[in-house]
Structure formats: structure tokens, C-alpha cells
Write a structure and sequence with these properties.
The strands form three sheets. A seven-stranded antiparallel beta sheet has the order 4-3-2-1-5-6-7, with no helix packed on it. It starts with a helix and ends with a strand. The chain is an alpha+beta fold. It has two domains: about 90 residues, SH3 type barrels (Roll), CATH 2.30.30; about 110 residues. The radius of gyration is 22 Å and the shape is flat. Helix 1 packs parallel to helix 4. It is built from four helices and twelve strands; from the N terminus they run H-E-E-E-E-E-E-E-E-E-E-H-H-H-E-E.
Length: about 230
């Protein structure tokens, strides 16, 4: 049981470490996992997150839309400087974006079920299969968590009523194992759903005459506010 708890703690610790990095969102909608060093009016210097002792890289501010720092704050870049969102101008790009588990396409706001239905209607098999697989995986994770909690509860009742440490302990042990196993299952499931944004925009994205907008943008490296145009 202690081993299961230790494994769960390690998984949670690794998840928190992933969020402890800076993310540089480039204007082309992809992102760089980094440790930002300096920012001036023309460029940003950084080290790659997977090689913090390595070389210092430089990127022009003209190529950067936003930075999400490790503490959860953001900087946005327009006209070569840090700024807040401005009045949009007419342009011709529309993309699928995400904020939490809510998805947006232009003026459409969709929850998870509506997004799955919308992706199917868009005739985008790669994005639909990715999202559907993620949804099924996340549901399996929630099912494992529920079963684990039920086994824990039943094991505790058996122990209290009968005094059987073996039976009660086994039930609670299986319950704890399911609760631990649900963590990576949920992480994988939601990651697949969230990464569908990149899959759709890369393979099935459409263009239309719409106004650009500021929104939450997702990639396989994390989330952040992006200027869509």
C-alpha cells in the first residue's frame, strides 16, 4: 500500500514539474518549453527546458505571440512590446481553441460532448478519433476512481463490522490501487482531448473572413492565451 502511495506521489510531483516551466507561444501557434532569461524591445533570450545548462537561444519578439510563465502569469506581445489585448482588426483566420474543457470555434462555444459531435460533423477523422479516444480514456479513469472509492468504503465497513483485517485490508488495498491507477489514465485521456486542438488546426483547419481574437490556446506542451488572426 505504501508503494502505491509513493508511486502516486511521484506521478503528481512529475505533473507539477511539467507546469513549472515557461512556455513561449510563437505567432505560428506552436510553443517552446523554456526558461526565459531576458526580454527587451526586440528579442527574448531563453534556455530550452530540457537542457537548462545548455546554450542560450534568441527569438525575435516579432515571432512571439505570448509567454506563459511558470507562476501562471502571461505577457502578450504586439508591436514589439509587452501589451494587453487591443481592438481586433479584420483578417481571415479561424481556429479551434480551448479554455479548460470548453472549446471554441469562432463564435461557437462547446462543452466536451458538443465538441465530439462537432468534430464528427467536420469530417476530420484524425481529430475526431483523437478526441474520442481521449474521451473514452478519461471516462475509464473516472470509472476507476469511483470503483476505488467504493472498494475503500466497503473495505472499511467490513473491517468495522467484522473486525477482519485481511478482508478489509485487501478491499481497501485494491481500492487504493485503482485510485492510484486512475491518475495517469485521466492525464492521458484529457491530454489526448486537449491535443485535438493542434490536430484539427494542423489537418482540417478552415479559413473565413472573421475578426481575430484573444483566446486560450492549447498545445501538447500546455495552455496559454494566444492572439488568433
Amino acid at each position: 500500500m505504501r508503494k502505491h502511495v509513493l508511486i502516486g506521489f511521484i506521478i503528481l510531483l512529475n505533473s507539477m514539474c511539467v507546469m513549472a516551466q515557461d512556455l513561449i507561444f510563437r505567432s505560428s501557434t506552436d510553443s517552446i518549453q523554456a526558461q526565459v532569461l531576458t526580454i527587451n524591445t526586440t528579442e527574448i533570450t531563453y534556455r530550452k527546458w530540457n537542457n537548462l545548462e545548455g546554450p542560450v537561444y534568441t527569438i525575435s519578439i516579432n515571432e512571439v505571440a505570448a509567454i506563459r510563465y511558470a507562476n501562471g502569469t502571461y505577457d502578450f506581445f504586439t508591436n514589439k512590446s509587452v501589451s494587453t489585448p487591443e481592438t481586433p482588426k479584420q483578417n481571415n483566420s479561424i481556429m479551434l481553441v480551448r479554455s479548460g474543457n470548453t472549446y471554441y470555434y469562432g463564435s461557437n462555444r462547446m462543452d466536451i460532448d458538443a465538441t465530439l459531435k462537432w468534430l464528427k460533423e467536420q469530417n476530420c477523422p484524425a481529430a475526431y478519433e483523437q478526441f474520442n479516444t481521449g474521451l473514452r480514456t478519461s471516462k475509464a479513469g473516472w470509472g476507476m476512481l469511483g470503483s476505488g472509492l467504493l472498494l475503500d468504503t466497503f473495505g472499511a465497513i467490513v473491517y468495522l463490522l467484522s473486525g477482519s483485517e485481511i478482508v478489509g485490508g485487501l478491499l481497501m488495498g485494491f481500492g487504493g490501487a485503482l485510485e492510484i491507477a486512475c491518475i495517469p489514465t485521466l492525464v492521458v485521456g484529457y491530454s489526448k482531448m486537449h491535443n485535438t486542438v493542434d490536430v484539427y488546426n494542423a489537418t482540417c483547419g478552415k479559413t473565413a473572413q472573421v475578426k481575430p481574437y484573444w483566446s486560450i490556446q492549447a498545445s501538447n506542451n500546455g495552455i496559454g492565451l494566444a492572439y488568433n488572426f
